[in-house]
Sequence to fold (126 residues):
Amino acid sequence: MIEPQPLEIRLERRGDVTFVELFGEFDMAEKQRFESALAPVASGVDSPGLVVDLRGLTFMDSTGLRCLLELGEKSREVGFELKVINGTGPVRRVLSLTGIDSILPMCDASEVPDRGRRRESGVVAA
Fold:
């Protein structure tokens, strides 16, 4: 039997943009950790830009999808710019099948500015 991979959340601030990289499995058990880690950014106080990178995820269930949709709603309410780097394999497929990839502001990593400069970085939750 394959052991589930816990969600790892890495936050890195580069200029006015906070980058969030997700690794492992994003399911119901990880909802609270995700919301807690992103609370300062989702309030719009921490930075005016947020990029969520899904390429490190191996699995995402409906809870993960809902968290992303709520983050999109929050970005419109508060006024920070959100970009989501699409996942691969099954994560990309579930985003496509549900149509969420047409609702959220999806992009490729090459479209994200300021990828070369590093300022603050750290693993928030592993």
In short: The beta strands are 8-14, 17-26, 49-60, 81-85, 106-107, 120-125. The longest strand covers residues 49-60. The domain at 8-111 is CATH 3.30.750.24 (Transcription Regulator spoIIAA).
